[in-house]
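Troubleshooting log. The previous structure file for this entry was overwritten by mistake, so regenerating from the original sequence record. Sequence copied from the archived sheet and checked twice against the printout by T.R.
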Amino acid sequence: MSDRLRVGFAGTPEFAQVALAAIVEAGYPVPLVLTQPDRPAGRGMKLQASAVKQLALAHGIAVAQPRSLRLDGPCADDALAAQAALQAADLDLLVVAAYGLILPAWVLATPRHGCMNIHGSLLPRWRGAAPIHRAIEAGDARTGITIMQMDAGLDTGDMLLVAATDIGPDETTGQLHDRLAALGASSLLQALGQLAQGALRRLPQPAEGVTYAHKIAKAEAALDWTQPAETLARRVRAFDPFPGCTALVAGEAIKVWRAQPVAAAGAPGALIASPEGRLLVGCGTGALELLDVQRAGGRRISAREFLRRQPSAAA
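Regenerated output below.
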């Protein structure tokens, strides 16, 4: 087998862009990229191309943006056009990373070696849409990247390569995302090299330890002060940068971007007096010290700056 595999790519956000950049820089021919349709974004809500599309166009790679890949669905015309493009691309492999569309059986069967997924967890833990968020929220000490052979299930395919990393005690989803994106790209190149040499081995996922990383719902952003401070601190880290945690503090609705649990006692949701000028809120167990916050329409500020502008909160 030639080591110049013809590699198609399906992905959308920055996590996927890092992998596509690695494939291109390694010299693999990329005849086709699939990505989500342009979406309104920013204050002006103008249509914006995905990070993957921007990179693909910069390298002169053909881009397809089907709304669906179901040949029998309401967007069948899009799916048929994508099918024709995939067949014409004559792919050895389709690499998938945070694409955002379910791949039906016909897609999985089109490339000669099927579809290879870059997943941001140590499978079978945290299958699903938000593995990075959920790993931090749950207090996991380690996570990583699994390069997986895709099948018809939800992240259930055979493992091809696994790379683990520790989660830092103060690491946010944004920080871990960037580290895993780089780890995913390097792991993918290793897997592609093994595939080209005929040395890639498939290992079924263990039946034990399966968990699901459900998509983040906006309702989860509100901090519930009856929960333990440790739990809330992890959620603040897990929801940074999206969607951010919200809370009512001194009668004002704010976003909480950085916080830490402390050994203090107070009624859940009540401010705890602090002679050092710290912003402490009672929780179900312990207290949460708010470190960085944001007022509606404002910027991130330190808790000390918040207290200077909200004297009643310091009482």
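DSSP finds eight helices and 17 strands in the chain. Archived copy saved in two places this time.
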